[in-house]
Design goal:
alpha/beta, five-stranded mixed β-sheet, two-stranded parallel ribbon, 6 helices, about 30% helix, globular
């Protein structure tokens, strides 16, 4: 719903439309096969009748992730560069909390796409749990690597600005927040009607077990 959401974040995720079956999803996670860059860009534009403005996007990826390999972050980036009409070269490259941040700005100078590459991090969400700015607790796939994806995403979306926080508090206090019904119907995405098992081996463990449990809960896997 790009007409509803002003921002989005993809952490160790796949490009939209890169897979339509469970087996394809596992292949894409490993960096195998998939639609061309041009096809991925077309799929994103065709996902809804919306034609802009587009959400600001923050992309996070661990350089040592072997579950969802870094090539997937490149595919996500290329999709959103296209709809935002951005070039391949970033507007700025900088170090933030010791990690590499690349940012792309639109023709008005507004930052609309950013990527964070976390050196040496495996599969999970980057956390900074210590210090005055610490948030969250480390756990499975919640990795304390000294940088808070939550805090930086909120800043990128400009949610931490004092005037935004004051306005949000005032709206909550006044009861001004209203429910929203999307005005655009998303186009259907095909799901394999008879999804196969992800593995013929014994009980899954670690990340595979988490994913298989989620797929079963959604009715996409037996």
């Amino acid at each position: 719903y790009p007409e509803l959401f002003a921002g989005g974040a993809i952490i160790a995720g796949l490009a939209y439309g890169s897979a339509s079956t469970i087996s394809e999803a596992f292949d894409r996670m490993r960096g195998h096969g998939g639609p061309s860059q041009a096809d991925l860009q077309r799929l994103l534009r065709a996902a809804s009748p919306h034609r802009g403005p587009w959400p600001r996007i923050s992309v996070w990826q661990g350089s040592a992730d072997t579950t969802v390999v870094p090539a997937n972050a490149d595919a996500v980036l290329a999709q959103w560069q296209s709809v935002h009409d951005l070039g391949e070269k970033p507007t700025r490259i900088e170090k933030v909390d010791g990690q590499t941040r690349k940012v792309w700005s639109d023709s008005n100078g507004r930052e609309v796409v950013e990527t964070f590459t976390i050196a040496g991090m495996g599969h999970g969400t980057p956390l900074q749990t210590g210090g005055g700015d610490g948030l969250g607790d480390a756990g499975p796939f919640m990795l304390d690597v000294g940088i808070s994806s939550t805090r930086h995403i909120a800043r990128f979306w400009e949610l931490t600005k004092p005037d935004v926080r004051r306005k949000a508090k005032a709206e909550v206090a006044s009861g001004a927040l209203q429910s929203f019904a999307p005005t655009e119907n998303p186009r259907a995405v095909r799901i394999d009607p008879t999804p196969e098992r992800a593995s013929a081996r014994g009980p899954a463990s670690g990340i595979s077990k988490v994913m298989e449990n989620a797929l079963r809960a959604a009715g996409l896997m037996r």
